[in-house]
Amino acid sequence: MQISEVAKKFGMTPDTLRYYEKEELIGPIEKGKNGIRNYTEKDMQRIQFVKCMRAAGLEISFLKRYIKLLDEGDNTIKERKEILVEQRRILKEKLDAMQEAYDKLNMKIDLCDKFSLRSSGRENK
Amino acid sequence: MQISEVAKKFGMTPDTLRYYEKEELIGPIEKGKNGIRNYTEKDMQRIQFVKCMRAAGLEISFLKRYIKLLDEGDNTIKERKEILVEQRRILKEKLDAMQEAYDKLNMKIDLCDKFSLRSSGRENK
DNA sequence: ATATCACTTGGAGTCAGCTCTAAGTTAATA
DNA sequence: TATTAACTTAGAGCTGACTCCAAGTGATAT
């Protein structure tokens, strides 16, 4: 599959895909003799993973480190787990902070509703 | 309360507090005749709010807009609610994406554990 | 043959959100 | 009185993650 098609499939730009490859989050992607990238099913699984993690705000430096270890094979599992556990911790903290903000937003929205009710109530007297 | 004290209280730097003030997320903070900021209880409530929202990733441009409306009074409630609802929607999407990544991380960590168990089991034969 | 199109590269530019620097003022301490 | 420390300002610099640009290549359509 060619770069623009893959980009479309994942809702990102070819630029971003090339950038991720340069940063070694994906690939290196095989190229035909014309120099054009041809993405395999496996490449796309990795893109899927990277996209998911990036959408959650995980840093590129982490992903790079992790994927390097992945490619090094089974004897990096212990280290990989440590990295994953650390990222999970960071992610959990962010999730909690966001949940707190979410609740606060909900409260504020409720207050707006209450205010509107009260004042429309007064109008109808 | 003086800037460095407030900064410490909220775990941020004086620079950030001055930056937020310049961007009109807080204040304007009253200054003594020496030109030094003196934060009131009300200022700090707003700092608290801004900090919470920023920690959840809400943009400064939104906070600025929202706080401007707040200061304009009751007849901006409808517009404020619209903004809040929109931000809630954005935040919800991010929360879901992060939850998905969180689950994926957990799965990967489980896989690491299983692998370690299996190989240590083999070792003990 | 020539134009169009999607691709390639290296490197520069952009953006949000801080973060730091330099130069200056003021109040308290040695 | 001189130093120190905490504050002030305007504005420059930094970081992460893209995003864009210019110049070039190669395959296809007219």
Descriptive keywords:
125 residues, mainly alpha, 2 domains, 5 helices, elongated, DNA-binding
Quick recap:
With 125 residues, chain A is an all-alpha fold. Chain A has 5 helices and no strands. The A-B interface holds A 49, 52-53, 55-58, 74, 77-78, 80-81, 84-85, 87-88, 91-92, 94-95, 97-102, 104-106, 108-109, 112-113, 115-116 and B 49, 52-53, 55-58, 74, 77-78, 80-81, 84-85, 87-88, 91-92, 94-95, 97-102, 104-106, 108-109, 112-113, 115-116.
Overall description:
The structure is a homodimer of 125-residue chains. Chain A has helices at 3-10, 14-22, 41-55, 60-72, 77-123. The model of chain A has no long low-confidence stretch (mean pLDDT 94). The longest helix of chain A has 47 residues, at 77-123. The first copy, chain A, has five helices and no strands. Chain A has two domains: 1-72, Multidrug-efflux Transporter Regulator, Chain: A, Domain 2 (Orthogonal Bundle); 73-125. Chain A has 125 residues and is mainly α. Chains A and B meet through helix 3 and helix 5 of A and helix 3 and helix 5 of B. Chain A binds a DNA duplex (30 and 30 nucleotides) through helix 2.
Main beta sheet of chain A, described? none
Radius of gyration of chain A: 23 Å
Mean pLDDT of chain A: 94
List the domain count of chain A as a whole number.
2
Helix/strand-derived class of chain A? mainly alpha
- CATH architecture of the largest domain in chain A, by name, is Orthogonal Bundle
What kind of oligomer do you see?
A: homodimer
Rough outline of chain A: elongated
Q: Quickly count the helices of chain A.
A: 5
Which stretches of chain A are poorly predicted, pLDDT < 50 over at least 5 residues? none
Distance between the termini of chain A: 67 Å
CATH fold-type name of the largest domain in chain A:
Multidrug-efflux Transporter Regulator, Chain: A, Domain 2
Under the CATH scheme, which class of the largest domain in chain A? Mainly Alpha
Q: Which chains make the largest contact?
A: A-B, 35 and 35 residues
User: What fraction, in percent, of the residue positions of chain A are helical?
Assistant: over 70%
Q: What pattern of helices and strands is seen along the backbone of chain A?
A: HHHHH
Structure summary, number of beta strands of chain A? 0
**Beta-strand proportion of chain A:** under 5%
